[in-house]
Amino acid sequence: QVQLAESGGGLVQTGDSLRLTCTASGRISSTYAVGWFRQAPGKKREFVAAISWGDGGRTLFEDSMEGRVTISRDNAKKTVHLQVNSVTPEDTGVYYCAAQRYGDMWTTREQDYKTWGQGTQVTVSS
Q: What is the pLDDT of residues 59-110, one digit of tens each?
């Protein structure tokens, strides 16, 4: 059973970068993808980025954030890092990492991610 825990949230200034870490425990294999989602106050949770654990570390990004976001993984440490550059107050929210076990292909759909962390609050001050 895979469990996930996020870290690195907190208060960030507009224009700075934020870096979050998702640490997995348990057995996570090449048939997993790990994604980051976020939920702003009063809004639905939305996809940010994801990376496959195998498959050469293929990445997918939410269209509006591509170019401002990077995602990377360290298989040995079982961590996935999310970095968001040039943050604005619109980046404020709870950031979650989640894992999806897949067969032939993996998705960015929230309902396909069955394992979730507790979330970490990020607040961007103006």
A: 999 998 888 999 999 999 999 999 999 999 999 999 999 999 988 889 999 9
Q: What angle do CA 68, 105, 21 make, to 5 degrees?
A: 40
Q: φ, ψ for residue 27 (rounded to 5)?
A: -90, 115
- What is the bridge-based pairing of β-strands 69-74 and 59-61? unpaired
**Residue 96, beta-bridge partner list:** 37
Give the Å distances, CA to CA, from 111 to 35, 38, 55. 12, 14, 21
Helices (H) and strands (E) in the chain, counts: 0, 11
